[in-house]
Automatic annotation (TrEMBL):
The keyword Zinc-finger does not apply. The chain crosses the membrane at residues 12-37, 43-60. The keyword Transmembrane helix applies. It comes from Streptomyces hazeniae. This is YiaA/YiaB family inner membrane protein. PANTHER family: INNER MEMBRANE PROTEIN YIAA, INNER MEMBRANE PROTEIN YIAA-RELATED. Keywords: Membrane, Transmembrane, Transmembrane helix. Pfam families: YiaAB. Residues 13-65 form the YiaAB two helix domain.
Length: 96
């Protein structure tokens, strides 16, 4: 059985990505807070910001899941599982 290849991610890259996301989120939130508009307009923009952030995380997860499902090791493991399931007879009492 082959083990999946782990792609290394440096700590500096992770910190840079987290800090850039935090800086962008805070700057947009401050921009919305200081915008000279009514409170309902500010609330609408804040709600849009929350929706944008949540959909960004969902999109990132979908892209990651698609990439993982297309890896060769995953497809080989899935083929093995499919073979085992197709050969298994739940009504055969002789199998352990």
């Amino acid at each position: 059985m082959t083990t999946p290849v782990q792609r290394p991610m440096t700590a500096a890259f992770f910190v840079q990505a987290a800090l850039s996301f935090a800086l962008a989120l805070v700057s947009v939130a401050v921009g919305i807070a200081w915008l000279p508009v009514d409170s309902w307009q500010r609330g609408f923009l804040a709600l849009g910001l929350v929706f944008l952030v949540s959909s960004t995380f969902t999109l990132a997860k979908c892209v990651r899941d698609r990439q993982e499902s297309q890896e060769v090791t995953h497809r080989v493991d899935q083929a093995r599982i499919d073979k085992i399931l197709s050969e298994h007879d739940p009504f055969d009492l002789k199998q352990p």
